Automatic annotation (TrEMBL), chain A:
Name recorded for this polypeptide: Carbohydrate ABC transporter ATP-binding protein, CUT1 family
InterPro entries assigned: AAA+_ATPase, ABC_transporter-like_ATP-bd, ABC_transporter-like_CS, ABC_transpr_MalK-like, ABC_transpr_MalK/UgpC-like, Mo/tungstate-bd_C_term_dom, NA-bd_OB-fold, P-loop_NTPase
Keywords carried by this UniProt record: ATP-binding, Nucleotide-binding, Transport
Domain ABC transporter: 4-235
Protein family (similarity comment): Belongs to the ABC transporter superfamily.
Signal peptide limits: none
Entry GO CC: ATP-binding cassette (ABC) transporter complex, substrate-binding subunit-containing; maltose transport complex
Organism this protein belongs to: Litoreibacter albidus
PROSITE patterns the record matches: ABC_TRANSPORTER_1 (PS00211), ABC_TRANSPORTER_2 (PS50893)
Coiled coil, from the record: none
Gene3D superfamilies noted in UniProt: 2.40.50.100, Nucleic acid-binding proteins, P-loop containing nucleotide triphosphate hydrolases
GO molecular function, one term: ABC-type maltose transporter activity
From TrEMBL, chain B:
Matching InterPro entries: BP-dep_ABC_trans_perm (IPR050901), MetI-like (IPR000515), MetI-like_sf (IPR035906)
Subcellular location: Cell membrane
GO cellular component: plasma membrane
Gene Ontology BP terms: transmembrane transport
Protein's organism: Litoreibacter albidus
Protein name stated in the entry: Carbohydrate ABC transporter membrane protein 2, CUT1 family
Organismal lineage: Bacteria, Pseudomonadati, Pseudomonadota, Alphaproteobacteria, Rhodobacterales
Record keywords, A-Z: Cell membrane, Membrane, Transmembrane, Transmembrane helix, Transport
Membrane-spanning parts: 7-29, 67-90, 102-123, 135-154, 183-204, 239-260
Keyword NADP: no
Membrane topology classification: Multi-pass membrane protein
Family label: Belongs to the binding-protein-dependent transport system permease family.
TrEMBL record, chain C:
UniProt family annotation: Belongs to the binding-protein-dependent transport system permease family.
Transmembrane segments: 21-41, 99-118, 130-150, 181-205, 226-245, 284-308
Phylogenetic placement of the source organism: Bacteria, Pseudomonadati, Pseudomonadota, Alphaproteobacteria, Rhodobacterales
Protein name as it appears in the record: Carbohydrate ABC transporter membrane protein 1, CUT1 family
Organism: Litoreibacter albidus
Pfam family, one: BPD_transp_1
Length: 334, 275, 319
């Protein structure tokens, strides 16, 4: 069980600041997801934890011991890369055993550990193949297997699903979640730009923006109580309605946030009213896009089949308890 | 009609290019099959098929010796250069350190050296080491052009290898030496073969050092042997034998070059155009 | 949680890598110092002494005398000596520059033409490309001998061809004749080196995106205009590098001249005359001075090139 602590961690490339002072505790054994738009520094932060990049300033501690200067292989980390990064000239077995070979493990131990990992991932029939003879999903499993064989204390994932097609992505996501349940003593850090991956996998999510931590919390906390318009807009699908102008002013804030499922259609005397300009039917529920005079149409989620015709004017009332209020700086007003 | 004429003209140009490229070698082959007075009648098509020139060349112990010398020298120089260049090019291509650009520039500068500029100093060194008129003189001196060339080309190849594979190896606990020997070398075989072949051709063809650092006929390399081949008098060049010897030492090169055609073009451009 | 340091202390990754890089580079640099820097230094040193081939270690320091010195005779007449007033040297300089300029110019133009031909799709392109590689693959000495035979005054096929076509009315001693020796050298060099130029140009052409041509075609721009306005400017960087490399090669030419036209005043280049003095005439120090001058000339050329052309030597990683 390894607890990871980042204390005012900074990373500069020349004069360019990429990580601008990050304080973060990753608890032992938890599944932490770094999420944010591209260029927010989430991959860099992961690489600082792995040791592939050097920390410019601040401290990184594993279980209270400073590891800034420790080389990656001695940190007890394993990493799964976006491009899988398998050694093309080695068989699957050799790919998985490479780290053990370098560590001069005994042949028996090597075989036992590679077998165990391969069985766990159901790739034991592929051990003799070369990476180019494998499908994308199989390659990703081998990459994960290679990491498991190292028996890491910290498991790092750098956007491991982004090269897979949609169906495979869902299946592999499940696979990774299962892995987390089975390897309970391993701390996992996972980088993604996809908030759905973050929501479904994470024990806690760390939202990054511009090299700084925007908010850390469980998926529920982030969904229910975003502390900024940035997080509010990033977490959840469809994204939270963010309304400015008079509507917000009426509630004493600069921006008013309300999720699509927290808006009720009322017969008359609704707080807001508008024309339905577009609808999306998802089967179990449907979305109405309503023009109420704001920059973007208001999205309203309704259960079941669509009842309301396009072009109809409807009255809407937000659930008062579910209204999020933000100040002019985009911070939540509590 | 215009179109037709155009394509006829185009193919005429193609034919001219091919004929000009191939004709001298073709003519050398024709000549190598002629003996005696047949040599002095100018023929555009093969007229005789006499192998006695080839027999003469292959029976000459000094020619065989020269070929062996050249193989030994070019092989040893290239092997030595590749051995040093692989690790050096890893450092130059994959490790960030201060002064790297300057170092690369100096290496490029050395490869552009006029060889005559080091001839006097090398002559002294060769004499000092007591290796004058031995293959070692050439093995040592050829390093001056094979080493910068291999370092330069391998650096450009090494730069193109994927970063994440190297990082995966680092996470797996590989030291830089492990990365070079266990991960990159196996991935670079095609590049190594091409670079080695180009450097080999360079060493095989070298003339100035070989001419200067050899004295006896048995120590000559192929180019010196061919340049020095003469008949009983200065006015009686043994053209038939000369052409046979030329064809013999060139055919293996041409075959190699044609086999590795695509790779060679890639290697030449890596050494030249990329910048 | 008890804060037990579980991870051993070690050097950071970049320190480990830099250290390894240092040891990886040391053997290569040592080898280059040994076979390039040291001999170069010694050559330059010799050029300031009166060292001779037979007694390499007995040379005395004589300053610039090998380059330029003067003596005043009792009659008051001043006599200049040294390479810089040696007509044979200036003849060699002129030959070298003339050779380099004309050969590189011809090779560039012809190479570009061949590259443009090979850039088109046609039946048998692979074979044509293979064919043009043949001159490149033939050792220089061998091609010099092959052409020496073809250019032979009595039995050479070139004279025969030209006579048949009627371009000449008497056989020419191409390699022996003062007027034609340089032409002979140029013919062989152009024949041998144009393929190299063509391949580099072809590689450059293939880097130009195809849609530029298609856009020009749609706009109805004539092929010639496209070449001058689009192809050539885009090809320029690649072409420049090729031209520089070839020029440096041409400036140090030795083997072709030495073998094809031995002892011809009309073709003797700087390398040839320097080696002649160094080894054959036993004017070792004098030859060293000439070698040093050639080196200086090329060094100036290279530094100009590096200074003018902003070569991306460090690669993309340095950005």
């Amino acid at each position: 069980m390894t607890q990871i602590q980042l204390k005012n961690v900074r990373k500069k490339y020349g004069a360019h600041d990429v990580i601008k002072g990050v304080d973060l505790d990753i608890r032992a054994g938890e599944f932490m997801v770094f999420v944010g738009p591209s260029g927010c520094g989430k991959s860099t932060l992961l690489r600082l934890i792995s040791g592939l990049e050097e920390i410019t300033d601040g401290t990184l501690e594993f279980d209270g011991a400073r590891v800034n200067e420790v080389i990656p292989s001695q940190r007890g980390v394993a990493m799964v890369f976006q491009s899988y990064a398998l050694y093309p000239h080695m068989s699957v077995f050799d790919n998985m055993a490479f780290g053990l070979k370098l560590a001069k493990s005994s042949k028996d131990e090597m075989h036992a550990r590679v077998r165990a990992a391969a069985e766990m991932l159901q790739i034991d029939h592929l051990l003799d193949r070369k990476p180019k003879q494998l499908s994308g999903g199989q390659r990703q499993r081998v990459a994960i297997g290679r990491a498991i064989v190292r028996d890491p204390k910290v498991f790092l994932f750098d956007e491991p699903l982004s090269n897979l097609d949609a169906a495979l992505r869902v299946a592999t996501r499940l696979e990774i979640a299962k892995l987390h349940h089975e390897m309970t003593d391993v701390t996992m850090v996972y980088v993604t730009h996809d908030q759905v991956e973050a929501m479904t996998l994470a024990d806690r999510i760390c939202v990054l923006r511009d090299g700084m931590v925007e908010q850390v919390g469980t998926p529920e906390e982030l969904y229910d109580a975003p502390n900024s318009t940035f997080v509010a807009g990033f977490i959840g699908s469809p994204k939270m309605n963010l309304l400015a102008g008079d509507i917000a002013a009426a509630h004493d804030c600069a921006t008013l946030g309300i999720r699509a499922e927290h808006i009720d259609i009322t017969k008359a005397d609704g707080l807001w009213a508008g024309k339905v300009i577009h609808t999306e039917n998802l089967g179990s529920d449907h979305y109405l896009f309503v023009e109420i005079g704001t920059a973007e149409p208001l999205v309203v989620r309704q259960p079941g089949k669509q009842q309301i015709a396009l072009g109809q004017t409807i009255n809407l009332t937000p659930q008062a308890a579910m209204i999020h209020r933000f100040d002019t700086g985009g911070r939540a007003i509590l | 009609m215009m179109r037709y004429l155009k394509s006829v003209a185009f193919y005429a140009v193609v034919v001219v290019i091919v004929v000009v490229s191939v004709f001298p070698f073709y003519y050398a082959i024709i000549t190598s099959f002629k003996t005696g007075t047949a040599l002095f009648s100018i023929d555009y098509l093969p007229t005789s098929f006499d192998l006695s020139n080839y027999r003469g060349v292959l029976d000459s112990p000094n020619f065989i010796r020269s070929v062996l010398n050249s193989v030994l020298i070019a092989g040893a120089t290239v092997g030595f250069a590749m051995f040093l260049a692989v690790t050096a090019s890893y450092a130059l291509a994959r490790v960030r350190f201060r002064g790297r650009a300057l170092l690369l520039m100096s290496i490029l500068a050395v490869s552009m050296f006029p060889q005559i500029a080091v001839l006097a100093g090398l002559f002294e060194l060769v004499r000092f080491l007591g290796i004058y008129n031995t293959p070692w003189a050439m093995i040592m001196s050829y390093t001056i052009f094979t080493l910068p060339f291999t370092v330069w080309v391998l650096t450009t190849f090494m730069r193109d290898l994927p970063l994440e594979i190297e990082e995966a190896a680092i996470i797996d606990g590989a030291t830089p030496w492990d990365i070079v020997s266990k991960v990159f070398l196996p991935l670079m075989w095609p590049a190594l073969v091409t670079t080695g072949l180009l450097a080999f051709i360079g060493a095989w063809n070298e003339f100035l050092f070989a001419l200067t650092f050899t004295a006896s006929e048995s120590q000559r390399t192929v180019p010196v042997a061919i340049a020095m081949l003469s008949g009983s008098s200065e006015f009686e060049m043994p053209w038939g034998t000369l052409m046979a010897a030329s064809v013999l030492v060139t055919v293996p090169l041409i075959i190699l070059v044609l086999i590795f055609q695509r790779k060679i073009v890639a290697g030449l451009t890596a050494g030249g155009v990329k910048g | 949680m008890t804060a037990t340091p579980t991870v051993p202390k070690g050097r950071s990754l970049s320190a480990q890598r830099k250290r390894a890089a240092f040891w990886f580079l040391v053997p290569m640099l040592a080898a280059l110092l040994f076979v390039a820097a040291w001999p170069l230094f010694r050559t330059i040193y010799f050029s300031f002494t009166d060292t001779s081939l037979t007694s390499l270690y007995d040379g005395k320091w004589i300053g610039f005398d090998n380059y330029l010195s003067y003596r005043q005779l009792s009659s008051g007449k001043v006599i200049w000596r040294g390479t810089l007033v040696d007509p044979a040297w200036w003849n060699a300089v002129w030959n070298t520059v003339r050779f380099a300029f004309v050969s590189v110019a011809l090779e560039t133009v012809l190479g570009l033409m061949v590259a443009l031909v090979l850039h088109r799709n046609f039946v048998g392109r692979g074979w044509v490309r293979a064919a043009i590689l043949i001159p490149w693959a033939i050792p220089t000495i061998v091609s010099a001998k092959m052409w020496a035979w073809m250019l032979n005054d009595q039995f050479g096929i070139i004279n025969d061809m030209l006579l048949r076509v009627g371009l000449i009315d008497a056989k020419i001693a191409w390699t022996a004749n003062i007027e034609t020796a340089m032409i002979a050298v140029l013919i062989v060099d152009v024949w041998k080196t144009t393929p190299f130029m063509a391949l580099l140009c072809l590689a450059g052409l293939q880097m130009i995106p195809k849609d530029i041509y298609e856009a020009a075609k749609v706009d109805g721009i004539s092929a010639l205009r496209v070449f001058w306005r689009v192809t050539l400017p885009l090809l320029k960087p690649a072409l420049m590098v090729a031209v520089i490399f070839r020029s440096l090669d041409a400036l140090r030419v030795f083997d072709l001249v030495y073998v094809l036209t031995p002892n011809s005043k009309a073709t003797k280049t700087m390398s040839v005359i320097a080696r002649e003095n160094l080894i054959e005439f036993d004017r070792f120090a004098y030859g060293s001075a000439q070698s040093t001058l050639l080196f200086a000339l090329i060094a100036i050329f290279v530094s100009l090139y590096i200074w003018l052309g902003k070569m991306d030597l460090g690669g993309k990683a340095d950005q």
